[in-house]
């Protein structure tokens, strides 16, 4: 149990740092690591579902810590958060609930493909049209619903999709990261509820699991990430984000490849 808990704590440190730094929620790291760890420590056919559901639950805590840190720099665009949140909540709840209809291999492959796409986007760093602006309320609601559903389904917290979406519409990188951290909270709230409901009647769940949330992993990760996420968030406003995005993009490719053969 000590080795298992140590893995969860280390995962929380790494995921919390990048969640605060890049506004990504941490799930891109948490899900592959938990999926691998659960193969050794748990005996259940719901490995990927538990990894994703647990990831969503941890993002609830990580997001709060990141928001507090980013708010000190007055970097969060609350006007954007307010317009995206209704769609995010709807999509997030749907994504978490619908996960029960996918088998573990399918979920793992969906996650891997999305992670690869995000990694390529980070590495290429394509620039938007300088005249592009955020669309109106209706289009933002559709975008929020899509982001919430996909993010919840694969447990990535929303920031990995929200940040590129905002940057593509010429929101500054630092504001996009901070705002994405804030948007991760409604994604995680709806997604966690969806995974609780979706896994409520699942059979062959391990001890200490409620629905698709495995509490030992949850507590190990949040204890570490809660204290580390503010450090990453503070460094967002000091370090060269472009270089860090490239390093993180390479890490995502490695983790995505691993998910194809979890």
Automatic annotation (TrEMBL):
GO terms for cellular component: plasma membrane. The keyword Membrane applies. It comes from the Bacteria. It is found in: Cell membrane; Membrane. Keywords: Cell membrane, Membrane, Transmembrane, Transmembrane helix. The chain crosses the membrane at residues 7-40, 46-67, 79-98, 176-200, 212-236, 243-261. It is a multi-pass membrane protein. Belongs to the 4-toluene sulfonate uptake permease (TSUP) (TC 2.A.102) family. This is Probable membrane transporter protein. It comes from Hydrogenovibrio thermophilus.
């Amino acid at each position: 149990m000590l080795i298992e808990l140590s893995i969860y704590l280390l995962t929380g440190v790494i995921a919390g740092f990048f969640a605060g730094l890049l506004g990504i929620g941490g799930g891109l790291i948490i899900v592959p690591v938990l999926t691998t760890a659960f193969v050794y420590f748990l005996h259940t056919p719901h490995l990927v579902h538990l990894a994703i559901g647990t990831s969503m639950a941890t993002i609830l805590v990580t997001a709060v810590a990141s928001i507090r840190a980013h708010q000190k720099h007055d970097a969060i665009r609350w006007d954007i958060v307010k317009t995206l949140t209704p769609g995010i909540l709807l999509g997030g709840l749907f994504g978490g609930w619908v996960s029960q209809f996918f088998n573990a291999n399918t979920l793992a492959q969906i996650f891997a493909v999305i992670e690869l796409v995000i990694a390529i986007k980070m590495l290429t760093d394509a620039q938007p049209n300088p005249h592009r602006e955020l669309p109106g309320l209706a289009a933002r609601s559709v975008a929020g619903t899509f982001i919430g559903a996909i993010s919840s389904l694969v447990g990535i917290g929303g920031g990995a999709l929200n940040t590129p979406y905002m940057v593509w519409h010429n929101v500054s990188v630092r504001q996009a990261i901070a705002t994405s951290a804030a948007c991760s909270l409604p994604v995680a709230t709806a997604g966690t509820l969806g995974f609780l409901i979706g896994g409520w009647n699942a059979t062959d769940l391990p001890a200490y699991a409620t629905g698709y949330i495995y509490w030992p992993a949850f507590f190990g990760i949040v204890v570490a990430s809660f204290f580390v996420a503010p450090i990453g968030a503070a460094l967002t406003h000091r370090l060269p984000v472009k270089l860090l995005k490239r390093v993180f993009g390479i890490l995502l490719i490695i983790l995505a490849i691993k998910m194809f053969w979890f």
